[in-house]
């Protein structure tokens, strides 16, 4: 990590979903982020997918996140992110919505991506985005 630059981290929807289903996922990630003064970036797409799958509304999701990360950054879909997500989904047939939006957000913001989805992690690495399984992210650094 570059000196003086704050590391930003994008968590895939599946990290939040697993947190709501099982717990014990966000706390160690947040601890590592706090140690390295990293900032959490939450794409609008992630909030929508978590809401759709868990039935938890986005405000409740954010309230849960605030327990671990005091100042998360939420990112809307910008034209730049939409263009990049379209390029990614055309280049990698297996990377479709919402993964392409999440990866595009990580790439555009220069963030590290954390996900349980190994295919998404592989695609991220091919796109030059630093990407980890949660357990590896916790140990990294």
From TrEMBL:
Coiled coil: none annotated. InterPro entries: PIN-like_dom_sf, PIN_dom, PIN_Pae0151-like. Residues 7-122 form the PIN domain. It comes from the Archaea. Gene3D superfamilies: 5'-nuclease. PANTHER family: RIBONUCLEASE VAPC6. This is PIN domain-containing protein. The lineage of its organism: Archaea, Nitrososphaerota, Candidatus Nitrosotenuis.
């Amino acid at each position: 990590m570059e000196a003086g630059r704050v590391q930003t981290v994008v968590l895939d929807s599946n990290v939040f979903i697993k947190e709501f289903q099982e717990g014990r996922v966000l706390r160690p990630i947040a601890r590592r982020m706090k140690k390295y003064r990293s900032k959490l970036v939450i794409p609008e797409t992630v909030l929508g997918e978590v809401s759709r799958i868990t039935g938890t509304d986005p405000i409740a999701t954010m309230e849960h996140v605030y327990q671990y990360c005091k100042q998360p950054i939420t990112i809307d879909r910008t034209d730049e992110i939409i263009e990049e997500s379209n390029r990614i989904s055309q280049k990698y047939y297996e990377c479709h919505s919402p993964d392409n939006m999440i990866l595009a957000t990580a790439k555009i913001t220069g963030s590290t991506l954390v996900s349980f989805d190994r295919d998404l992690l592989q695609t991220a690495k091919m796109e030059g985005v630093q990407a980890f399984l949660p357990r590896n992210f916790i140990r990294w650094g």
